[in-house]
Amino acid sequence: MKKKSYNLPFIALRGINVVPGMVINFDVSRRKSVRAIEEVMSNPEEEQKIFVVAQRDMLVSEPRLKDMYDIGTIAAVKQVIKLPNSIIRVAAEGEQRAKIGELMERGDILYARADVIEEDDTVPPKLVEKAMCRNLHELLKLYAAANTGINRDAIKQLLEINDIKKLVNKFMSDFPMDYTDRQKLLEITPLQARFEEEERILAEETEILRIKDDISQKVSQRVEKNQRDYVMREQLKVLHEELDGEDAGSEIDEYYAAVEKLQASDEVKERINKEIRRYKTLASGSSEANVSRGYIETVLNLPWDRCSDDNNDIARAEKILNEDHYGLEKVKERILEFLALKAFTNGAESPIICLVGPPGTGKTSIAKSVARALNREYVRICLGGVRDEAEIRGHRKTYVGAMPGRIIEGLRNAGTGNPLMLLDEIDKVSNDYRSDTSSALLEVLDREQNRNFRDHYIELPVDLSKVLFIATANDVSEMQRPLLDRMEIIEINSYTSNEKLHIAKDYLVPKQLKKAGLKKSSIKFTDKALLTIMDSYVKEAGVRGLERNIAHICRKAVTEFLADNPDAADNRDIKFRPVKVSERNIEHYLGKKKYLPEDSYEGRRVGTVRGLAWTSVGGDTLTIEVITMPGKGNLVLTGQMGDIMQESAKIAMSHVRAVAGTKYNIDSEYFENTDFHLHIPEGAVPKDGPSAGITMATALLSAVTGKKVRKNLAMTGEITLMGYVLAVGGLKEKLLAAKTAGVKTVLVPARNKADIAELSDEITGGMDIVYVSEFEQVIKNAFEEKN
User: Fold this and answer.
1) How far apart (Å, rounded) are the C-alpha atoms in residues 537 and 593?
2) Which of 97, 552, 609, 660 has the fewest C-beta atoms under 10 angstroms from its C-beta?
3) Which molecular function GO terms apply here (predicted)?
4) Is the pTM of this model over 0.90?
5) Does 630 show up as a binding residue in the annotation?
């Protein structure tokens, strides 16, 4: 189809444009434009049309073709009004979009060729059209809510249109926008593209209104605040002058005086003085002044070169450790060696100690005792769950709410530069893609780096080499190796029943009686009662649960006494009736027993073997069960086993299959037609670790051969594919668990013989420890000759 073209009188518009369907009034004053209107009005009514195009630059008085936009509008002139100063006001209605061609001058009238642009007649599907209309309506509502001065009727008319073509065209003609945006819409032919441009214009205008409103509010608030602050400062100044002649400089003078008294290097003092001078120039009450004041006060409160004198009396330290802790002989010996070396070398290069052991074994209290023995300030920093390395290194001052890290905060609280700083639960610091807290601790715990530790908030080198760091952890297997390498590990193992009994009698019972307001003679605990609590009410390596149960008994005794004697709380003459807690009445105070004696497997079963496991809270027994069933040689593993334990089960299965034919005359087809199910009871409890290999292999071989395992037997050790038994850890906890379960014989790896030799007779007494180095020895001791 041939495009339509018209030669029409041409008018260049400045700062406005006309689009199809738009009725607009505009004034013309240029001679050629006035003559063009007069020429149009001399034509018949149906031919009174002009071609209007917007100028690119409004300042050009005699525009040429290059000064015009490419697309304009053919408009019908509806009315002409002559105004003073040779100005004509024209009322016109846009009809068709057209592209400007060449400009022609006929006398003093300017004509232009207008090439008509056909409209896009594409109609989107109904659902798409509905979605487009709804989206534009929602943006219009947001704009109307942000613009309180808009013509509500115009918005209402737009919201009532549900034809997307009409809505887009109506928006283009009626919505108040800059002429450059309207020109963009005029130049876009596809309906979808014009719709998207209108969405952008609406969203942009709404955001501009929101930002403008925010700026207006902030300016208003700032002006009001500054005015109020000015009045208050002037009033405060007058009050100070009336009282004693003080002025605002008194605070600055106090800061300068504090710097003079500060025990710090010249670098530190100069940095603080520089900050004070800066603070002096800031407006009082401003946010910057508050940040600067907080920084100055924080730095002035740091100890810097102020240190306390150590007490290097080793005999006194040993006495304090013995007073505060029962047992732990090797731990005490290592602590005393550490203190002696520190005193002898004047504290040079003292190692960083990490106390590792189950909960409730006294790690934190040992650190307190060391601080008391050295006469040092004690600071505890709990690292459990710390996720942000800024909690170690501090925040930048530029951040809102910035503060120093926990290390600097600990120094400030201690008031000395050489406190004992306990880094509690160091194995539980967070380490993920968001932050690496463990790496932040490397600088703190490295003696080569912490002499010039820089906190992001303080921004000055702080000497941490004089700080005595002691860390605590439950399990170091998941800790980063570089961090672990900077510390000396001292293990605190589980307590034996005898040690727990002495701790309860000498420490826990007197402590809880004092807390309950009772005398030592008020409640008597028999040894059997305390042993019953350990065996039947708590299952732990430490004594925390034991202490809680003792406290519960004390509270219940006080409650019963007050129930029988209501006036005793006010009348102290009523004496507390002594109570004796024995094995017989323990259930009256603590309820039914929670843990019953474990089955010792007097009635032996095929495929059932007892293993020993180490957990972060002590040792435990681990029963492994295997059954066989017709199948295709599959191995099913259940009981919440981790990856390491699953690998051990597969290795055990492979070794059993390798030796079953040659040593036990099991046909190879048996494994191809049989499925094996290996299960560890208490399936809700996750289990993992490299110490159950021989236990699983024994259970599998028992199920294959039908032979029963000896009664009162337990074992621990890892197995290789070739049948060798590897060494394991946590033997003290494992043997304690075996002793509690009534086990008489324990198979342990021969490579752990030296570890067993270090254990006391209290742990190994009454048990037959059998050392095995190969799986054949395990089977020889596990299976009875008569099965």
Assistant:
1) 6
2) 552
3) ATP binding; ATP hydrolysis activity; ATP-dependent peptidase activity; sequence-specific DNA binding; serine-type endopeptidase activity
4) no
5) no
Q: Please give the torsion angle defined by the CA atoms of residues 288, 289, 294 and 298, in that order, rounded to the nearest 10 degrees.
A: 100
Token pair 């495929």 is found at 607
Pairing of strands 453-454, 461-462: antiparallel
pLDDT single digits (tens) 694-734: 999 999 999 998 888 888 889 999 999 999 999 888 888 88
Q: Is 362 annotated as a binding residue?
A: yes
Distances (CA, A) of 108 to 40, 47, 54, 83: 14, 20, 20, 21
Q: Give me the percent of the chain exceeding a pLDDT of 90.
A: 8
Catalytic-labelled residue, pool 33, 292, 438, 691: 691
Q: What is the pLDDT of residues 215-242, one digit of tens each?
A: 888 877 777 777 777 777 666 656 655 5
What is the structure's pLDDT at 749? 93
* Greater pLDDT, 50 or 152: 50
Query: CB neighbours (10 Å) of residue 550?
Result: 26
Q: 126-146 and 191-243 helices cross at what angle (nearest 10)?
A: 20
Return d(Cα 690, Cα 686) in angstroms, integer: 14
Q: Are the CB atoms for 747 and 778 separated by under 8 Å? A: yes
Q: How many Å apart are CA 60 and CA 54, to the nearest integer?
A: 11
The amino acid at residue 548 is R
- In the numeric block, which tokens belong to residue 306? 């102020």
642 annotated among ligand-binding-site residues: no
Is 691 marked active-site? Answer: yes
Q: Establish how many alpha carbons lie within 13 A of residue 81's alpha carbon, considering only the half-sphere containing its beta carbon.
A: 8
49 labeled part of a ligand binding site: no
- pLDDT, one tens digit per residue, over 495-524 is 777 788 888 888 888 888 888 888 888 889
> Could you tell me which residues are beta bridge partners of residue 619?
614
Tokens standing for 400? 């809102």
84 annotated as ligand-binding: no
How crowded is residue 12: how many other Cβ atoms within 10 Å of its Cβ? Answer: 25
Q: Mean pLDDT in the chain? A: 83
Determine if residue 597 is labeled as part of a ligand binding site: no
184 phi and psi, to 5 degrees? -60, -45
Q: Can you give the pLDDT at residue 650?
A: 92
Q: Would you call 556 a catalytic residue per the annotation? A: no
For 356-413, write each residue's pLDDT tens digit: 888 888 888 888 888 888 888 899 988 877 777 788 888 887 777 788 888 888 888 8
> What pLDDT shows up at residue 602?
46
Adjacent-strand bridge partners of 626: 678
Q: Which domains does the chain have, with CATH numbers?
A: 5-116 (2.30.130.40), 126-211 (1.20.58), 249-300 (no CATH), 314-491 (3.40.50.300), 497-590 (1.10.8.60), 608-782 (3.30.230.10)
Residue with token string 């197995």: 719
Residue 296 near residue 278 (C-beta atoms within 8 A) = no
Q: From CA 494, how far away is CA 151, in angstroms rounded? A: 80
